[in-house]
Design goal:
heterodimer, A: 114 residues, four-stranded antiparallel beta sheet, 12 strands, 0% helix, B: 114 residues, seven-stranded mixed beta sheet, globular
Amino acid sequence: AQSVTQLGSHVSVSEGALVLLRCNYSSSVPPYLFWYVQYPNQGLQLLLKYTSAATLVKGINGFEAEFKKSETSFHLTKPSAHMSDAAEYFCAVSETYNTDKLIFGTGTRLQVFP
Amino acid sequence: EAQVTQNPRYLITVTGKKLTVTCSQNMNHEYMSWYRQDPGLGLRQIYYSMNVEVTDKGDVPEGYKVSRKEKRNFPLILESPSPNQTSLYFCASSPEGGYRTEAFFGQGTRLTVV
């Protein structure tokens, strides 16, 4: 069964520092990959998605992620963290030939310090 | 405004008292799902529906029921709630083709069963 692993349940960075949130997936077929963000007391909203087009995907709020098939990874990055980036981030996968289910990782809580 | 609406946002109930959490979307989406979010476990799918009158179990369906009589509505029913169903619940919808594009989430329902 497909799965998603997010390394690090908590990540802390200083404002202005690089943000790197890790996501690895296991899928026997090329997947669709997503990053969602959850701000406090809100639902999830899409940051970016990979659907087999360009391997470097740009999303909202300056975030981007790179699909690396050889490493089965889809890490999320942002060059310079902002206080407003503090939230919980979820990586998710849907298989190309079975898009009925969206499988989520366990989430990474990002803290940004001034 | 395109949205997924869940009600209620907060609910405290007693063990064994039947309850329903409603979910409605105004985007004419075919796919709808229910997830529960628990600390350290991320989001786990309870049930999903690919269209009217078509539903299927997700990863944690025990103790839950759903129905899809109309395209826009997908209520979650707990016939006899137990304390281990205390959680944060999210409804999500997605266009035809399933989860290869963006999933839209409701604001969440925080359920406490005492």
